[in-house]
Design brief:
By secondary structure, the chain is of the alpha/beta class. It has six helices and eight strands, in the order βββαβαββαβαβαα. Helix 3 (111-126) crosses helix 6 (177-199) and helix 5 packs across helix 6.
Amino acid sequence: MRNLHILLNGGHGEDTPGKRWSFEGKTFYEWVSNRETVNRVAKKLHSLGIPVHIITPESEDISLSERARRVNELCARYGKENCLLLSVHSNASKNHDARGVSLWTSRGTTKSDEYAEIFWRCAKQHFADAKLLADLSDGDHDFEAGFHMVTTTACPAVLVEAFFYDNRKDFDYLLSEEGREAIADWYVESIQKCIELYEA
């Protein structure tokens, strides 16, 4: 029986410059949030019997080349078509007014676009009050770019930017238990629907 293996990459690390923001004595550290999300999602997936692999269990910032190597090692073991990489991030903007969720894949039409579209549709249901950012120029909602983790990895890959931590409303949501649990649940439901597509 085939299994879709979920590969979770928590972006950045404790030694990454920037990637943090403070409001009124509280500080958001992106690497902490990314790993906390990865751990929550992994625990939920384990309970559902879904094979999951954490690419970056360390707190330090592992190089992109090493992250990609770890992903590709798993792709070689299980088959690249049997793996889905999710690179977990939160966003920031220059004017601190931006809010919402965006999904990123490599350029061109790939299986990654189909998986990203599932995440986008699920986000509409999970985050009714949040802005969902989209690029519809190619007929789907994800943005496309040459990010290392979506271009040098062998399997379908989606980079997720879940909310803007330098926007006060998103900042509070990201640090709340409600927000953390909602984001993890969104990942899990989206992954379950990705598995349905994979098994179809």
